[in-house]
Structure formats: structure tokens, C-alpha cells
């Protein structure tokens, strides 16, 4: 009897541990290259609560600034693409259709990328 309780408890703990492992970064676009893109979670946009993701962990401060600027610009443009400036960098932002949920993406000509998801 004691052995079956311990076995059941161990199995339950292993299952719980599997659920607690880090979740993979979401894939944002339907193309294979974009789906494999590595992004880092930076936190939530304070105005919208959307999750903010950046191409590299070192750019999280900038990503949060971009998210904030885009949120302000997007509120007056009802879904239209927006061009914003953060520091000396110009970003082009727009909503894109994900699989299945839409997401917001901001990119630069130099390859910078910030993604906002719900």
C-alpha cells in the first residue's frame, strides 16, 4: 500500500515538473524562417498588458520603449501601419495575422524586431 502511494506521488510530481518547464517562445508567422526565429520575453507593455518579445535579450529595454511608442501611435491609427522613432532608430509597426491569433510587430531596416502578443 505504501509503495503504491509513493509511486503515485512520484508520478504526480514528475508530471507537475514537466508542466513547469519553460515554455518555448511562440512562433509568430506562418513562414518557417519566422517561426524558428529566436525571441526573448522582455515583459509586458504597461499600457496594453501585451507581452513584449525582442530578437535578443540585450535589447529588452529598447523593445519596451518601442512597444510603448507603438501603443501610443496605434491608438490613433485604427490598425494602419505606424512609423515610430525610438532614440535614433525608426521602426515600422503593424498588426500581422498569426496562427491563429494576430500579433503586432515592429521592425527596423537593420534587422531589429519587436513583437507584441496577447
Query: How many angstroms does the end-to-end distance come to?
Result: 47 Å
- Individual helix count: 3
Number of strands: 6
Dominant shape: globular
Give the helix proportion (percent range): 25-40%
Short description, anyone?
The protein is α+β, with helices and mostly antiparallel strands. It contains 3 helices and 6 strands, in the order ααββαββββ.
Could you explain the architecture of this structure?
The chain has one domain (26-117). By secondary structure, the protein is α+β, with helices and mostly antiparallel strands. The chain contains 3 helices and 6 strands. The radius of gyration is 19 Å and the shape is globular. The model is unreliable at 9-24 and 30-36 (pLDDT under 50). The chain has helices at 2-20, 32-35, 60-74, and strands spanning 40-44, 51-54, 82-86, 89-96, 103-107, 113-117.
Helix/strand layout:
Elements: H1 2-20, H2 32-35, E1 40-44, E2 51-54, H3 60-74, E3 82-86, E4 89-96, E5 103-107, E6 113-117
Antiparallel strand pairs: 1-2, 2-6, 3-4, 4-5, 5-6
Amino acid at each position: 500500500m505504501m509503495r503504491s502511494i509513493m509511486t503515485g506521488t512520484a508520478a504526480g510530481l514528475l508530471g507537475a515538473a514537466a508542466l513547469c518547464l519553460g515554455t518555448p517562445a511562440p512562433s509568430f508567422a506562418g513562414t518557417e524562417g519566422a517561426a524558428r526565429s529566436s525571441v526573448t520575453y522582455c515583459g509586458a507593455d504597461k499600457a496594453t498588458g501585451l507581452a513584449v518579445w525582442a530578437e535578443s535579450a540585450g535589447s529588452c529595454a529598447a523593445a519596451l520603449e518601442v512597444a510603448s511608442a507603438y501603443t501610443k501611435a496605434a491608438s490613433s491609427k485604427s490598425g494602419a501601419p505606424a512609423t515610430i522613432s525610438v532614440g535614433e532608430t525608426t521602426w515600422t509597426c503593424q498588426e500581422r495575422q498569426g496562427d491563429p491569433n494576430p500579433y503586432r510587430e515592429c521592425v527596423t531596416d537593420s534587422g531589429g524586431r519587436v513583437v507584441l502578443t496577447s
